Each structure stands twice: as C-alpha cells, then as structure tokens.
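Question: Send over one sample?
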Amino acid sequence: MTGERRTTDGTADGRRASAGARRGRDRRARVLPGPEGRRRADGARPSVAVVGGGIAGLAAATALAERGVAVTLYERQPYLGGRVGGWPTRLPDGTPVTMSRGFHAFFRQYYNLRGLLRRTDPALERLAGLPDYPLLHAGGARDGFRRVPRTPPFSALGFALLSPSFGLRDLRALDPVAALPLFDVRVPDVYTRLDDISAHDFLDAVRFPDQARHLAFEVFSRSFFADPRQLSAAELALMFHIYFLGSAEGLLFDVPRAPFPAALWNPLAAYLEGHGAVVRTDTSVDHVEPTRDGGHRVTTDEDETHHDGVVLALDTAGLRSLVARSERLGDAPWRERIAGLRTAPPFLVTRLWLDRPVAADRPGFLGTSGFGTLDNISVLERWEDEAARWAARTAGSVVELHAYAVRPHSPRDVEEKRLVEQLHRVYPETCAARVVDSRHEWREDCPLFPVGGYRDRPTVRTPDPRLTVAGDLVCTDLPVALMERAATTGFQAANALLRQWGLRGQTLWTVPDRGRNAVLRSLARWVSG
C-alpha cells in the first residue's frame, strides 16, 4: 500500500479522504495546494541529501521519497526525532527504559505534523488526548482549559470569565487598544509591528494582571525556552493567534501513548525505507560543497556522495557549524545571517523513578508558575505505556520536571536539587518517596527568537536554488510555530525542490491567516496606522 493511499497527505489519493481528518474541527483552516506536476519521478531519479533527522528533516524526506526522489537522510545521533527523539537506557534493577528530552504537546492545530504522523498511523491511534491543560500559580490560583469554549472570540471571553486569575478590577485595567494587535495577526505583518518589542514589555503595555500573565501568557513564551524579556512580542502574538484567538481547535492536546521512537519515528523510518530512502543515523556530515553541475557534494565522517539537491534541517548550532565548515555554500550576506543565529538559554529535564505513586488525582501534565525554576510536571504513567508498566510492577511513579531558561552559569547540581525541592512543594506526597533512579538532561540547542531578530532569520529558500533550509528556526510566511513550524518548513523545503523537477508537491494546512473578527481586524489596522 503506498503512502498516498494510506494518508491524507494532500496527494491525489489523499484528497479523497475526509477534509476533516486533515484539518481538524476548524472550518476556517487554510489549505495551500502544493506545486502541480507529475505524481512520481520517471526516468533518471533526482537525488537529495537531507541533513538532520528531526521533524523538519523527516517531513522533507517523506515528501521527496513519496515522489520517487532518491533520498538519503543523515542524522548525527543514533536515533531520529531530533529534540523529540529518545534513546535506550537501563535502571539499576536492569529494566530497559527510554529516555528523552521531555514532554511535548501535539496540539490539534499541528495539521502538517499530524499529517506526517498519519503516514504510519492514519487514525492517530498512537496519540492520546489529555483531558485538561491545568496551570497552577504558587499563590494558589489554578486555571484550566477543559471547559473553555474553543471558538474565538468565545475562547478568550470564556477563559476570562471562568478563570480565578481575572477579577473585575483586572478586566477594567486592561488596555484594549494595546491588546488589539492580538486580534489581527498576519504573517509577516505581525513582525513588522511587534518584532522590535519584547514579550514582557508588550504584556506590560496591555496591563495584564500578574497572575493571569504567569498562568496564561508566560506559558506561551516559555514554550520557546526563553525569558519573556528576550523573546520577540511578535512570536508571542503569533502563539496567541495559533492556539487561542485565531484557531477553533482549542488549547487541549495529544501526547504519544508510547516513547517517541516506538510511537513516532521507528515506524516513519520504516515507511521511508519502504519508499526507497536511505536512513543513515549515527552519521555526521562534515561539509557540503556545491558542484559545477548545480548539485552538491556531501562529505560525512565515512564517505563522500553527490546529490542533485540538499535540505539542511539542523538545529541552530548545527546549522551555524556546518555552514561555517562549508565555505562555498550560499553568498556572504546569507552566511552572515546564519552565523548570527542564537540559541535560547539552557534548560533542564529531570526524570525521576519513584518507589511510590503520586496522588491519584494528579494530572498527567501540570504547568506551574512561581515555583522557582519549575515550569511543569508530568506524571508519565498517566499516558505512556512504558512508564505505566514500570509503575504497575513497582507500585511507583515516573515523574518528569522541566525548567526552562535557566541562568547560564548556575551550578547544575544546585539547579537539579532545587527542581526536586519544588516538586515537593507542589506534590507534597513525593517528599517521602525514595528515588529509585534519576536522569538529568541539560540542553542548550533551541533557537532564540530575540527582539528584532526576524529580519535576520533564514528562509526556506537560499541563494542556491538546489539548497533549502528547514526547521523551527526558519522564517516562513505561514502562521506556524514550534514543532508545526519544523514540519511545515520541512514540507516547504521539499516543495521548493520538487517544483524544479516538475513533480507534484505537498499540500499544506494552517490555522486562519488573519484574525477571525472583521471588526477587530479593522480596529487593529486603524490603530496601527
């Protein structure tokens, strides 16, 4: 069975499937047909090297391989998935388990990412929906999104009315004029208007109450692993549009029922290989060199191969490093922009295997604010089969803690200890638990979207028509962010190459590309001049 028949991927067979399966519940979701052309390459097959096996690289490789392109996917790590990958380890009792960089939420707005996953899981049965997205402040305020209406503007109104974080005095103090840009988010216009102000200063201008800001707004900025004082307000506004004010999909999300490799990437690797792609994990690309025929020579730590096109789907540091080593790639201005890319502050993921369970009413995921560096707590056995089996066998719990935007020079052992202390504050029953084993993952490789940085970010297309770039760091003219931006730009990178060879491209979906209310859109444009 081909990938076209199995999935709603925007191809001829995919169009026969229900539109609702592709776009979710929002009837205003936007469809962008891919390039027209032949369904598959015939005769001599063009070849493409995809450098990077994260979401962006996997999306690009999938779209290309489905069209008969000879794809070689290179990944430095021994596993796929990038920042959503996982690797095997063992507990002291010999139990094999899978470790990862932590929790990821697969929102219903992630149309293109979910379309990628449908290649091997058409009904998305490997994902499970969590019943709520609860948020807890150290002062005692608690919010959630389960009862909030999903369709704007009732979503914003419902949240304000249902939330204990908003009092009548707080609502009266809001500056509606300053908040109007949130109701008319268009890309790239939102960057013209808001990229030169920080998310923190924008929230100050809107005069949101402190508790509501911590519980609802900094949650979005923390998704970028950045302090709101460093994050562009344009990215914050875009997040509001995608999740809250522009989309009718709501703020609830799905999580994989099994560790990332088993649920997501191992099946997709087999799918790619079934389409003739070569997947080379544990392989570092040393440099990429343009050749006289318009192609590229890719040199790894093992060999050297020639390809007609290249997709660079790397994280910020990886892209900077590879371009610096590949002296002939691109032109001087492009190389300068790549060299100037920055990473977000370090973050910490701590996973604890405890000898007793947390309280039965603890949610699978809890966002927190005001508890030191602790940003959220996950109880993995609530949804992940591997953790559930361990917890059932030992009568214990598998708990994961996240700390985003940690101060760069903080002693790591001190931060790890403080994070566990905050867990004890939030879930006091864990104080008496013995830690059977623990893992602490320190990383500093997420892209930073700083104030005024939009103009210097790379786009999918480069000065070289056979070289494209993909990833969540990439600038695109579609309203997407985080994992969905990675998947979308991966498909866009593939489309840019497929168009050159006269091959049909991948159809994309996004949330609406502007505010939903015409009156509010007009007011926002009038205020902005």
User: Anything to note?
Assistant: The chain has a mean pLDDT of 90. DSSP finds 19 helices and 22 strands in the chain. Residues 36 and 80 are 30 Å apart (CA to CA). The first helix runs from residue 3 to 6.
